[in-house]
Give the backbone structure.
Amino acid sequence: MEFLGKPRSQRAAFLPLCLLFLKILHPGHSHLYSSRYAGDKVIRLIPNTEEEAYALKKIYQQLKVDLWQPSSISQVSEGTVTDVHIPHNGSRALLAFLQETNIHYKILMEDLQKVLEKGSSLPTQRSRRSVSGYNYEVYHSLEEIQNWMHHLNKTHSGLIHMFSIGKSYEGRSLFVLKLGRRSRAYKRAVWIDCGIHAREWIGPAFCQWFVKEALLTYRSDPTMRKMLNHLYFYIMPVFNVDGYHFSWTNDRFWRKTRSRNSRFRCRGVDANRNWRVKWCDEGASMHPCDDTYCGPFPESEPEVKAVANFLRKHKKHIRAYLSFHAYAQMLLYPYSYKYATIPNFSCVESAAHKAVKALQSVYGIQYRYGPASSTLYVSSGSSMDWAYKNGIPYTFAFELRDTGHFGFLLPEMLIKPTCTETMLAVKNITMHLLRKCP
Ligand SMILES: *[C@@H]1O[C@H](CO)[C@@H](O)[C@H](O)[C@H]1NC(C)=O
Ligand SMILES: *[C@@H]1O[C@H](CO)[C@@H](O)[C@H](O)[C@H]1NC(C)=O
Ligand SMILES: *[C@@H]1O[C@H](CO)[C@@H](O)[C@H](O)[C@H]1NC(C)=O
Ligand SMILES: *[C@@H]1O[C@H](CO)[C@@H](O)[C@H](O)[C@H]1NC(C)=O
Ligand SMILES: [Zn+2]
């Protein structure tokens, strides 16, 4: 358990000193991502009329903005909040346009580079591994996460088994942890994935947190013990491994996979639009340069195909599919691709309602919940809809903190509260499905 524990008080005194030294030793390293986001802004806009929405779509296209919310320009519409990341050389043009047209806006971030450097400190400046054990309150690189998985596989073989379900486009292993007490009896299972979208770093941090909590509280917490005794959890901490790696090394705001296209220079497919369920319809793009590109065909991405194969093979005993995204503070269930109510709606709805209440009980953070189509936006080809259509009765997608103040740059300070409250929601859903629902 040494590896999991982290007596904070001991470390607290040590850390500042340690940071100070590293700052002195690496003065030139303070410009993350070669300062490519210096002067970039993040702006929130709410078009009040169809005309305004139309005008915004046009200028977004012209200026090649990086849309944070919603995920595609086609989803920009009257009354919906849009958060855009505008590169420094386009911000003057956008602001002039907004003043001219009188469209309401609010600058969320004046200088994205500064926010980025403040919120998540440099890899060299922080304690990647705390003095004793592992630090779950920083974001970890892919390599660190994979090393952590290997380590747990060795040290906690009674509850954890690590295996690979395939290889990514760039040849990285797609690792999954099977968590739960091994038993001869038939056990139902829950699938959890994090990091389908590369830039949503809080996702993988939550997956790690979940595993840590499970191992730490298995003996002391009756709920956790029940969960691990009666169920297996298949946990994939980083779904989109290539994209996640790229978001550490090159582009912090990369979303898609990293596959190449035969006809365009743009790379990557939206791994949450690539599933064979109303594939490439509303809310997905056919254009390889778009952030919601559905890919050349369903399951074209090796990462998607590997997970789909695994779920197909194990669907008889997988009772729930949970996918972790950011940001919006929402708990979503099917359908994503159409406005319609799922069969057995009341079971899923009450599970979501209770989970959100449990989450809110910790710090008062409010989540909206409901069908993804009407709560967030319509999107086709999503993993959640696919899992549901393939017979997994409880499928949910979490959109974790926050609602745009930090967006994808949720500071490391907020990892602990975010994961703590989310843990309660996940436990609540899990207990719900252990009981019979009419
Ligand atoms: C801003 O710079 C990028 C990269 O240098 C360029 O591709 C883009 O066209 C520029 N945008 C504007 C509005 O000048
Ligand atoms: C996890 O541990 C088991 C048993 O110790 C081993 O057989 C397996 O290869 C390990 N998994 C990985 C991915 O290394
Ligand atoms: C609804 O739930 C009942 C009881 O769990 C189950 O037998 C039935 O197959 C479900 N129907 C659908 C359409 O999922
Ligand atoms: C789930 O959440 C509801 C609402 O907060 C609460 O009443 C219930 O006790 C929770 N159940 C579990 C098992 O945590
Ligand atoms: Zn996402």
